[in-house]
Specification:
2 helices, rod-shaped
Length: 112
Amino acid sequence: MIDRNGKTVIPFAPGSKANVRDDDDPADESGKAIVVLLKEAADTARATCLQAVSAAQKAAIQLRAAEARIKELELEVRYHSDRAAHAEKWLAHVHREIEDKFFRPNPAAQSK
C-alpha cells in the first residue's frame, strides 16, 4: 500500500483468527497474574520494611541521646544533693555554735 506522498505504508492489524495462537491456558494466565501480584506485594513489603528500619534507627538514636541526657541530669542532681547535704551540715554546726555561745548558761558566770 502506498500513501499520497509516495511512501509505502504497512498496515498494522492483527491477522486472521486462524493465524493467532491460542496457547495461553487460563491456568497459565492466572499463574502469571499471581506472580505479578506477588512481586508487587514483595516490593511493597520491602519498602515498608525499609521505612520501619529507618524509623527504628532514628528512634534508637533519639533514645541514646535521651539516655545520655538523663545521665547528665542524674550527675547534676547528685552534685546539687551533695552540696545541699554539705550546706546542711554547716548550718547544723553554726546552729550548735550559736546555741552554745548565746543560749547556754556560762559556767564561769555562774560561779561568780
